[in-house]
Amino acid sequence: MLGCPANALPVSPAEWLTRTHPDEQPLLASLFEKLSSGNDEQINFTLRLRHGSGMWSWFEVRSRRQNTAEEQASTVLVTFNDVTQQKQTESALRDSQLRYRALYTTSPLSFVQWDRQGHILEWNRRAEQLFGWTTSEVIGKPVHHLLLPEAQRAEFNQAIKALIQGSGDGSFSGPALGKDGLLLHCAWHNVALRAPMAACSVSSR
């Protein structure tokens, strides 16, 4: 896991600390200190160890005391589980969420997200400007009743149903209602989100 031969693996606490990332050295030093004092406390944390390639690898560290067969003595087992891939996936997900949030916030298009029951979950700044309602005014409201004239709701529902079933692209054009009662002609581009949200609409006037 560390990319080095067995005879080059760290043995002493000092050698382990040398291979540990500076940010996590206090965690590992604390573990060694507790083990040397006979502390039975179970300790779990993650840290980075330098790989033989020079890169940092993430490990989940767990310690637990094991009794011997005679039950008169015990040893402490410390395990290192490589979680580098998990950490990289989490980092990529965070980056993706930040990019999405930047697009969502600054987009010139209106973004509306709602759950499977049609209740609005998110409403970006452009939607506030276009339709007139603030985010706090629309969260939890049924999107169809809020934004669509009654005559358009059945057609819109059919477009969403076809999208979810895979028989349509979710596109819909027609009048939409603004807060001031003005009818806006909007082109809706809908995307089905499997969980936890049911759909996202991007509308342009």
Automatic annotation (TrEMBL):
One of the GO BP terms on file: regulation of DNA-templated transcription
Residues annotated as signal peptide: none
Reactions performed catalytically: ATP + protein L-histidine = ADP + protein N-phospho-L-histidine
CDD domains: PAS
InterPro entries in the cross-refs: PAS (IPR000014), PAS-assoc_C (IPR000700), PAS-like_dom_sf (IPR035965), PAS_fold (IPR013767), PAS_fold_3 (IPR013655), Sensor_kinase/Photoreceptor (IPR052162)
Superkingdom as given in the UniProt entry: Bacteria
Molecular function (Gene Ontology), one example: protein histidine kinase activity
Residues of the PAC domain: 43-95
Keyword 4Fe-4S tagged: no
Keyword set, alphabetical order: Kinase, Phosphoprotein, Transferase
Domain PAS: 96-167
EC number: 2.7.13.3
UniProt name for this protein: histidine kinase
